[in-house]
Amino acid sequence: MTELTLTLLFLTKDDQVLLAMKKRGFGAGRFNGVGGKIEGDESIEQALIRESQEEISITPKNFEKMAHITFDEFFKGEPAIMNVHVFTTEEWTGEPTESEEMSPQWFNIDNLPFDKMWSDDIHWLPQVLDGKKLKAQFKLDENDKIISHNVDIVHNF
Length: 157
Known about the structure:
Blueprint: E1 2-13, E2 16-22, E3 31-32, H1 44-56, E4 59-61, E5 64-75, E6 78-89, E7 91-93, E8 102-108, H2 121-129, E9 133-140, E10 146-154
């Protein structure tokens, strides 16, 4: 079984969050934060910065880990465990810009497009955007349908 470690970043300002429409590859057609797989001997933080630069041309500053989510799911048709480290930030350099992979868009935190996001997001993202730190587990079938999930608030990582 494949096991991957990934990063996910949400930029916030005022009552808004930046989501990006994935244009190709895994997750295409869905809004999400920016991020991706750790490469080589990168740290989670280094991967977060690199992915943000590649996907929307920004460099995050003073980001904070808000969640660790484990997904037992299917990746490219095969069973996989994905360990996702979720961060938020209110500070970055550069202007969020569309790339070949992602098209960024600001949304009001109270009006997120959950019908165009991963099915699990509604269970944890509002809490993260409200400043809560979480540990969560999701089991998904081969059609990305949630079989089971658990979301716990934690005080730190």
